[in-house]
Amino acid sequence: MRPRIRGGRTTVLAALLSLTLAAPIAAAQAQDAPPPGPTAGAAQKAELPHQYEVTGPATRAERTALLATGVSIDEVHTRAVVITATRAQATTVRELGYTLRKLPAPPGISATPHKPRIKDFPAGYANYHNYDEATKEIDALVAKYPEILSKQVIGTSHEGRNILALKLSKNVTKDEQEPEVLFTAHQHAREHLTVEMSLYLLNEFTSKYGSDSHVTKMLDSREIWIIPDLNPDGGEYDIASGEFQSWRKNRQPNAGSSEVGTDLNRNWDFKWGCCNGSSDDPGDETYRGPSAASAPEVQVVTKFVQGRKVGGKQQIKAAIDFHTYSELVLWPFGFTDDDTGPGMTQDDHDAFATIGKNMAATNGYTPEQSSDLYITDGSIDDWLWGDQKIFAYTFEMFPSSFGSGGFYPKDSVIPKETSRNREAVLQLLETADCVYRAIGKEEQYCSGN
Ligand code: LU0
Ligand code: CA
Ligand code: ZN
Question: What is the pTM of this model?
Answer without folding.
Answer: 0.91
